[in-house]
Amino acid sequence: MAILKPKSANKTRTLSVRLPTPIVEEVEQVKRLADERGLLFDVSEIVEKAVSSAIKTARAELEASPAAGA
What we know:
Number of strands: 2
């Protein structure tokens, strides 16, 4: 999977998260470098895939765990 790709319109909703400053600075730097080359570092897509994977894992763990108070 290519991390950098051509720019395109993208419709999303906002989910605000806190990240360590060094990570945010690196994201901003890579986005800027990609933009200078006419490319897009699509953090939203990368985060979407990571969160979707985490949700799938969490759901599997929940299914395997007894409900609280049961």
